[in-house]
Amino acid sequence: RLRQGCADDVTVYGDDPAEQARDWRDQGGNELHVVDLDGAFAGTPRHAAVIARIIEAFGGPVEVGGGLRTPEALRAVIEAGATRAIIGSAALEDPAFLSEALELYGDRIAVGIDARNGFVQTKGWVETTRVRATDLARRVAALGVGTIVYTDTATDGMLTGPNVPAMDQ
Known about the structure:
- The chain is built from eight helices and nine strands.
- The protein is α/β, with parallel strands linked by helices.
- A hairpin with a 4-residue loop joins strand 7 (119-122) and strand 8.
C-alpha cells in the first residue's frame, strides 16, 4: 500500500499476494480490488502473472487496474479472469481507446478517476492535469461508462476514510 500514492512511502502487509487474496476471502471479502502499482507508474502492466494468481486464489469477483492503456493489456487482464478492468489515465488521454473497450467488454470496463484538490491525476498520480474530476466523470458517463472508481489521492492510504465533500461535488 502506498501512502498518498508516493512510491517511496510503502506499507507491506505480506509477501505473497495470492495468499493475501485468500486471506481476504476467508475473512468474508466478497470482492477484491487490485492495482498493479508498478504498471500504473510504467504505463503498462508489470505483474500479469501475479494478478492471474491473485484472481485464481480469490475465487470471486476481482477488479484490476494499473497500466491498462492498450488493447493488449486490457485483453490480458480480462483473459486472466478479471471481472472488471479499470482504465485510468487512458480514459482521459485516449477516449477512442475507452470507447473501443466499452464496445468490446461493456460493463466489465470501469474508469478510475484519481484526483487531488479536484483535478485529475494520471500516470500513477505523478502528473496532475487541469481537468476537473467532475468533468471527466461526466465525459466518461456520456460514453457509456457505468462504473467509476474515484480516489482522492490526498487521503488515500491515510486510514482517515473517504473525502466525502470532494465526492459530493
